[in-house]
Write a structure and sequence with these properties.
alpha/beta; 8-stranded mixed sheet; two-stranded antiparallel ribbon; about 25% helix; about 25% strand; binds cytidine-5'-triphosphate; binds calcium ion; ligase
Length: about 230
């Protein structure tokens, strides 16, 4: 009940945050997953909550403690993340931070695959649903503001701009995940480029908490106007 009454510029705004990795079982002991600490997504959920938003955090397994005062839905697979996100619609804004496994094994077997019999070098894969793309391309009840993340190497800005077009989302937060001293993966700090309809903005290196607060402020600015 107190969720709805939280004061702040995002009061009465419903926001979805996806975070963490998804985990796709191969057999009872093995899985496919992406690298994701969940730190940036959890920080964004907390920052949005602090501005008064009614936040639903749909999260894969992480070691992070969810912020107080938000709705938390724990999932394992991309398909679960997709259906939990759709089940919680409508949203004014969706922030897709999750590192979703792009593919899952076509067949999840309850039998442990034995390596001496082969079968582990050639696992048929099938593509997972794309949560960001699905929300971006909704024809009815689309969240007003859909935001994706793009962790890239090499031509970071080029890849991220192409991704924004391909997915149909409004904004992309891009970061360089080339291995190195300042890599955001698993760390506390992040250097991002915010890509919006108005162009690209490079933010200086800051903590993931600061990135989250800055993004939440920008979301609040963009959502001024009548609620859903
Ligand atoms: N995303 C998603 N569902 C997927 C794949 C990605 O919601 N099945 C979202 C991520 O949460 C992120 C954005 O899409 O906000 C970009 O994810 P990314 O993995 O960088 O994009 P892909 O289209 O999967 O491209 P690739 O991995 O080949 O770079
Ligand atoms: Ca991907």
């Amino acid at each position: 009940f107190f969720l709805k009454d939280a004061a702040g510029p995002l009061s009465h705004r419903r926001v979805l945050v996806t975070a963490g990795p998804t985990v796709e079982p191969i057999d009872p002991v093995r899985f496919i997953a992406n690298r994701s600490s969940g730190k940036q997504g959890y920080a964004i959920a907390a920052a949005l909550r602090n501005l008064g938003a009614d936040v639903t955090l749909v999260t894969g397994p992480t070691n992070e403690k969810p912020p107080a005062g938000i709705n938390v839905v724990r999932v394992q697979t991309a398909r679960e993340m997709m259906s939990a996100s759709e089940a919680a619609l409508p949203f004014d804004c969706a922030v897709c931070c999750a590192a979703v496994a792009d593919y899952r094994p076509e067949i999840e077997t309850p039998h442990k695959i034995k390596k001496e019999r082969g079968g582990l070098t050639d696992i048929p894969l099938t593509e997972n649903p794309d949560i960001l793309k699905t929300l971006s391309k909704m024809t009815e009840g689309r969240p007003r503001l859909v935001i994706g993340f793009a962790a890239e190497t090499d031509d970071v800005l080029g890849h991220a701009e192409a991704k924004r077009n391909r997915k149909g989302c409004d904004w992309i937060v891009a970061n360089d995940v080339s291995p190195g001293e300042h890599c955001a993966m698993g760390g506390e700090r992040n250097t991002v480029i915010l890509i919006t309809e108005d162009g690209d903005e490079e933010w200086p290196e800051m903590s993931k908490g600061e990135v989250a607060r800055k993004l939440a402020d920008r979301i609040a600015g963009a959502l001024k106007g009548p609620a859903l």
